[in-house]
Amino acid sequence: MSFKDSHNILSNLGDLPFEDENGEEPEIDVLVTQKDMENAVAPIFQKAIDITKELLKRNNLKGSDLGALILVGGPTYSPILRRMLKEQITDKVDTSVDPMTVVAKGAALFASTISVSDEVKETTRDKTKLQLDIKYEATTVELDEMVNLKVLKEKTTGTFPEKIYADVVRFDGAWSSGKKLIGEKATIVDVLLVEGRSNSFEINVYDEAGNKLECQPHQFSILQGIGGLDKMQVLPYHIGIAKFFHTEDKDLFLPVKGLEKNKKSLLQGVINGLKTRSAIRPGMIKDIIRIPIYQGDYNAEGTNPVLNNLIIEVIITGETLPALLPEGSDVDITIKVDRSQLMKFQQLIFLC
Q1: Any idea what the CATH number is for the domain that residue 325 is in?
Q2: Residues 314, 316, 317, 320: is their CA dihedral positive or negative?
Q3: Do β-strands 139-140 and 219-224 pair in parallel, antiparallel, or remain unpaired?
Q4: Number of structural domains found in the chain
Q5: DSSP state of 211
Q6: For a tag site, which of 24, 267, 272, 314 has the least CB within 10 Å?
Q7: Residue 227's pLDDT band (boundaries 50, 70, 90)?
Q8: Residue partners of 350: CB distance under 8 A and separation at least 6
Q9: CA distances from 168 to 109, 149, 164 (A)
């Protein structure tokens, strides 16, 4: 029905306890039209469209402000949905990408912009090869980009020549930097990019006589056409805690300042001025501080915490404290969220 105006369904109903007048099992023969489909699925599509309208409204946007509306998922093949989107959101419905693979492609593009952690680099480092440090912007809207190259001799074993040259070659072989002298101080190489795609570069390293040397890493990639992809990730929910409010005499959801919904990722939020409800004695496992961390949607502030999504309970017992923590002691909480929305929790307790 995504590609035809109608479809004929002819199906054997299986083993039924009766037969027709000819002694044969009955069959079902139904003609389904686009109008029948619209009656069945339009209310479901409308819910998705209403959510889209609300999202635009919260961001002070209109459909006409959109450069394109990209469709994702098999149901977006439906001509009914596409027509409804054009009528209610924008006529700039982009059907140029495969809705079945666009999420995977986007995930792959995003993954290509994430730097490998220092811990992983150290575990995979082959110190018998000349070690390089490469710094560059993983995404850009420019057609050329600066790359900093330097030699990490302290990370390299063995003997290497005093003068080392690097030639950066683009994936298509149509551009190269030519040999540049590199050393322990950064050398800037301007690389030329192909528009609208991921550009891979090979690094070839030579000694003064032109002999090729093995190096690590020996390649890198820059995505041209999408600026700041790593900064586009946003929090889908408020991050908050359950805090006791004396005025209400109950726990309520309190968003962490700096970790509100739609904030850009790579974030840090802090809550100051919290108080312990009871004394925590050192060495006592039964004396605990319990801090539940929740995700909350819009209008979640001040709601019952159980109405929100519990992420984890951070529990600190007297076993971890070096001294008595009296009732009413000050506690500060810091939560950091990275691009993958992994959270790191820090708690500062002021011991008296």
Answers
A1: 2.60.34.10
A2: positive
A3: parallel
A4: 3
A5: -
A6: 24
A7: low
A8: 329, 330, 331
A9: 22, 10, 13
Beta bridge partners of 213: 205
Q: Which residues contact 242 (CB under 8 A, 6 or more apart)?
A: 251, 252, 253, 254, 291, 292, 294, 305
Residue 112 lies in a domain: no
Average pLDDT in the 182-208 region?
A: 94
Q: Which two tokens stand for residue 190?
A: 């301007």
For the chain, the residue count is: 352
Q: How far apart are CA 177 and CA 159, in angstroms?
A: 26
Residue with the bigger pLDDT between 113 and 299: it is: 299
Mark whether 125 and 212 lie in a shared domain: yes
What's CA 44's distance to the chain center, in Å? 27
The pTM (predicted TM-score) of the whole model is: 0.51
Least confidently predicted of 114-118, 161-165, 189-193, 227-231: 227-231
Say what the pLDDT of residue 13 is.
60
If you search the block for the tokens 């550009």, which residue do you land on?
A: 199
Q: Are strands 180-182 and 187-192 parallel, antiparallel or unpaired?
A: unpaired
pLDDT at residue number 347: 72
> Which segments of the chain does DSSP mark as H helices, in order?
34-58, 79-88, 102-111, 118-124
Instruction: Indicate if the alpha-carbon torsion angle 143, 221, 119, 228 is positive or negative.
Output: positive
Whether 165 has a pLDDT exceeding 90, the answer reads yes
Phi, psi of 273 (to 5 degrees): 80, 15
Tokens encoding 73: 């998922």
In a domain, 64, yes or no: yes
Q: Report the candidate in 89, 335, 304 with the shortest Cα–Cα distance to residue 235.
A: 335
Average pLDDT rounded to a whole number, residues 285-301: 87
**Which position has the token pair 């809705």?**
99
